[in-house]
Structure prediction request, 417 residues.
Amino acid sequence: MENLSVIRIKKLSQGALIDRLLFGLISVFVVYTVWYQYAFEVIPGFLPICGIALVGLSAAELLSQRKYALSSVIFIFVFFVFAGITGWVFAKYPASFNRMLVLILEYMLPMCAIILYVGSEEKRFNNILSLFFITTLLLSATVIFHGTLTSSTAITVGDYNTNTLSCNLMVGCFATLLCMYGQKKKSAKVFFYLAVLLELAAQLLVASRRGTIVHILMLLLYVYSVNKIKLSKNKLLKGLIAFGGIFAAAYVAIILCGDRMKDWVIIQRFMGNLGATSGDASRKYYQAVAQDLFKGSPLIGVGLGGVDGAIGVYSHSMYYETLACTGTIGLIILVAGFGWYLFKFHKNCQAVSMLDTATRFRNLYGFWFVICVLVAGIAVVFLYDVFFYYILALLAALTNVTKKKRLELRQKERECV
Prediction:
């Protein structure tokens, strides 16, 4: 009996050590890819070494009881296999296809590592949310205080692509708002409110119209979600409080600061200033090329990286890119995966008697975040950037944590009966 106890303790100690190492490596990877490499410098060979270490530690986690965790992102594996097989056989631009396939595989590694680290433990999920919150805070501060002007007079950090930067701020906003909900100390609330304002200011300086719209939409939906969870008796009142208050505040701000705001790059872009929106014509051309490629192979597409292979750039839209590169089948797989998240989050936030308030809120806001991601996909490709796989990791982890809570509550109900 003593020997068995010693063996169990050793296994638990080894598991805890692997968890700590994996979280540490994930933290380094996220901070480096989201902030450090742009704010300071690229470290040669860092990502391959980090990737190999992630594979090793993730494999160790796979040998534990967390195999099921990856089932929450099964659709992206199906998409990858489908795109890989069809592209390997039919790719119109093999060089671009091979490059993008390897790129996606590299980005799936941290996604799997995050999901396996969290498993179904809420504490670990909170650790990951805090990681993204802190990293986004660093990124936002760098944009505001040490940002550099681009050719379109927007603000960026180093050679950060403004679309990618904007999307990373969007992911960070999601993590920040999940961390902020339920804070009871006034000092913590004030800190998070300031953090939200800092991230919004950075988003405005980056001057992405899509990013600004989605970011503001996320804030509005956060207010709505908080009110829906807390004020369950009057749905109309929830909507009026959530949206009426925000719009009134925005209207007052515009009236008071209108003269100053008209010179902002983001405002100029919304107003259709030619200099600030000169990329619109280019995007239309890229998407016209993507449309032509799709017409040539509507079912399976021309292979990953097809638009880049044809004209040297992406289509600047997840939907155009997916249709052109993986056809109707690829888009259906991708959209169906997000549809599954919508279904699960909606189902979970309706479980009033089954889940605590905080978990219901997180699922409700997860539902709205998926909507925001789908909206953002109209003007950004997603597939070839690591932030997309961070999004999938956060959504999958939230799903797994909630699933465990529901199973535990059902077990308690059975025991009571």
Summary: Confidence is low (pLDDT under 50) at residues 6-12. The radius of gyration is 22 Å. The chain has 15 helices and two strands.
